[in-house]
């Protein structure tokens, strides 16, 4: 049986609209399912905390990357597969995996039943599926989630605009840090680091292809470091990242590895799949082939 988890509030109400469409489609196809609706942050994880693996063969999220992130943390190394009907504002996991954005396409992919095994990275005990970021992107996520303008813009259906506004706000106040990075026992030192992305898959931030070659089945993580760059130049490089063309820029360094330790000289805000995490250290590893995903 499918357990469907719906975040009605995802994507400024897109979750509810897409669920209504999904409900009709599932009825037409005579699919048996159990459905639950999230009511607060953290609820999706709680709903499947004690999942009966003999009864439920797949969890389907109708929601965004934040809801998926909670579910991933409960499904790692389980028999239960994950399906997604992308209804968030960013939908970067769907973009990376080529999941259709329309309800019918996304559901028919799930109902076909063929899954792949995907790697799941972790930083300390926190798993994530797409990208973890330290620095500038973490700060933008933190400021946006706290800001009153987000709530107001969400009500007006302009939620994405709050990210853009905060990118500018953070750009002119952010203080870069010096950072030591250990990748598979090789040691690197960077000055004036703006951001470090540690990626299982290519996309974050609603379509930014920060690590174009990241592959969720190679047992490794791709790392992008942006350092030693002026504020105005960063503003110029930023749009290139929507097509992955930033990687040739002289202030951008790309690596790949399975075990990564990041030590900044001053604290850097960390986000995993867009959710802020309060870790003391940033030691990354990969659980290979740890999640079944449609
Ligand atoms: N009923 C609810 N009311 C408020 N917040 C909720 C509710 N249900 C879940 N949440 C929380 O809302 C946050 C955002 O949800 P989600 O990621 O699904 O959508 P999104 O932010 O619009 O999409 P994306 O992450 O793709 O940009 C998550 O952290 C989730 O835990």
Automatic annotation (TrEMBL):
**What is the required cofactor set for this protein?**
Mg(2+)
Know the name of this protein?
DAGKc domain-containing protein
Similarity field: Belongs to the diacylglycerol/lipid kinase family.
Keywords in alphabetical order: ATP-binding, Kinase, Lipid biosynthesis, Lipid metabolism, Magnesium, Metal-binding, Nucleotide-binding, Phospholipid biosynthesis, Phospholipid metabolism, Transferase
Keyword Protein biosynthesis: yes or no? no
Per UniProt, residues of the DAGKc domain are 1-127
What Pfam families has UniProt attached to this entry? Answer: DAGK_cat, YegS_C
The keyword Metal-binding appears for this protein? yes
Question: Organism's domain of life?
Answer: Bacteria
Origin species: Sutcliffiella horikoshii
